[in-house]
């Protein structure tokens, strides 16, 4: 069926074509799972319903969607948000609006939008029908890699830097897992705002290349876990202000080490737990440094703010940074939808250098 049917015009003919489209083409290729488990075993490519179209609906031709760790955890059944089964995989993604319902005001055909990832809409599909409040319009001109990955990691980094301490140019933030998607976005946003970053990573065979990559993104200092007690680290800490903010996505010993460098009355925020080990707070940090210990989950923030303008305002600022070159999309490996098994296999590999990106309508 011709693509132009996806872009209806006003008039009797277009109304008829739109009716035909919705009546006879309501199922499209999607990556589906009917049970939780190993993603390489439970995912399959099949046709699935796009959703019912109504006055508040927005019909999307999906363009691209990444494979994020949260998506994998959701399929495994270990993530806090669980869609009803069977479900289409994926939460983040970018699509082109092809049709809008009569009550829709904020978007129109031809616009590019991103899905609100906390809604569990299922982004790994060719076409999707959602409600108006489930998408956000983004500016034209963003490369597909940037548009598909803008709503989770960069927004998480944005909120971590905005919501816990009143950071000013010259202030310092320390983080572990600095090579993660959030970590790399945070390095770039902090650099644009004049905030210094001390970045902790795990040792690996290509660690010097990784250090150079992070410094190229704007990292002031990059150290491995084993160097946290070194003379080099002591010299780094002497040259900067004590960090007001420590950001933890690892847990265990790595998170405990961050407390050693956190300034008095500073804040430790945990937003991930890759080691699957608990966060242990040194007694001295609580008593003598009076530190704050908090948690953050981007999905919950989005749910709490879905009725105000803060999400859209944040998205505008983050997209502006991407367009100005202050923030770069993560390096991505593109996969057509039919090759999703390869994409999933690559996403499950440790120390992956790129994010796996599904191209949904190539």
TrEMBL record:
Domain Enoyl reductase (ER): 37-358
Domain of life per record: Eukaryota
InterPro entries: ADH-like_C (IPR013149), ADH-like_N (IPR013154), ER (IPR020843), GroES-like_sf (IPR011032), Mito_Enoyl-ACP_Reductase (IPR051034), NAD(P)-bd_dom_sf (IPR036291)
GO-annotated biological processes: fatty acid biosynthetic process
Enzyme class label: oxidoreductase
Subcellular location as annotated: Mitochondrion
The UniProt record lists the keyword Mitochondrion: yes
One of the record's GO cellular component terms: mitochondrion
Sorted UniProt keywords: Fatty acid biosynthesis, Fatty acid metabolism, Lipid biosynthesis, Lipid metabolism, Mitochondrion, NADP, Oxidoreductase, Transit peptide
Record EC number: 1.3.1.104
GO terms for MF: enoyl-[acyl-carrier-protein] reductase (NADPH) activity
Gene3D superfamilies assigned: Medium-chain alcohol dehydrogenases, catalytic domain, NAD(P)-binding Rossmann-like Domain
Catalytic activity: a 2,3-saturated acyl-[ACP] + NADP(+) = a (2E)-enoyl-[ACP] + NADPH + H(+)
Family: Belongs to the zinc-containing alcohol dehydrogenase family. Quinone oxidoreductase subfamily.
Protein name per its UniProtKB record: Enoyl-[acyl-carrier-protein] reductase, mitochondrial
Organism the protein comes from: Desmophyllum pertusum
């Amino acid at each position: 069926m011709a693509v132009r049917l996806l872009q209806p015009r006003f008039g009797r003919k277009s109304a008829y074509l739109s009716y035909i489209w919705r009546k006879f083409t309501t199922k499209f290729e999607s990556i589906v799972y009917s049970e939780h488990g190993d993603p390489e075993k439970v995912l399959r490519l099949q046709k699935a319903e796009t959703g019912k179209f109504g006055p508040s609906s927005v019909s999307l031709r999906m363009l691209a969607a990444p494979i994020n760790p949260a998506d994998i955890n959701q399929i495994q059944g270990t993530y806090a948000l669980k869609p009803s089964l069977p479900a289409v995989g994926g939460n983040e993604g970018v699509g082109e609006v092809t049709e809008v319902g009569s009550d829709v005001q904020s978007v129109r055909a031809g616009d590019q939008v991103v899905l609100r990832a906390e809604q569990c809409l299922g982004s790994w599909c060719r076409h999707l029908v959602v409600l108006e409040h489930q998408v956000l319009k983004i500016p034209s001109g963003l490369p597909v890699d940037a548009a598909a990955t803008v709503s989770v990691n960069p927004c998480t980094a944005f909120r971590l830097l905005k919501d816990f301490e009143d950071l000013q140019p010259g202030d310092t933030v320390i983080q572990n897992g600095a090579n993660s998607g959030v970590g790399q976005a945070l390095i770039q946003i902090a650099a644009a705002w004049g905030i210094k970053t001390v970045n902790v990573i795990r040792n690996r065979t290509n660690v010097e290349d990784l250090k150079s990559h992070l410094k190229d993104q704007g990292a002031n200092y990059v150290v491995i876990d084993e160097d946290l007690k070194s003379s080099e680290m002591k010299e780094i800490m002497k040259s900067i202000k004590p960090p007001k903010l420590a950001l933890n996505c690892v847990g265990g010993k790595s998170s405990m080490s961050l407390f050693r460098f956190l300034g008095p009355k500073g804040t430790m925020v945990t937003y991930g737990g890759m080691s699957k080990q608990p966060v242990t707070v040194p007694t001295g940090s609580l008593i003598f440094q009076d530190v704050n210990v908090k948690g953050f989950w981007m999905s919950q923030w989005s749910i709490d703010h879905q009725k105000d303008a803060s999400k859209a305002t944040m998205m505008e600022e983050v997209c502006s940074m991407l367009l100005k070159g202050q923030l770069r999309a993560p390096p991505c490996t593109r996969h057509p939808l039919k090759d999703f098994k390869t994409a999933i296999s690559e996403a499950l590999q440790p120390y992956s250098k790129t994010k796996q990106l599904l191209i949904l309508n190539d």
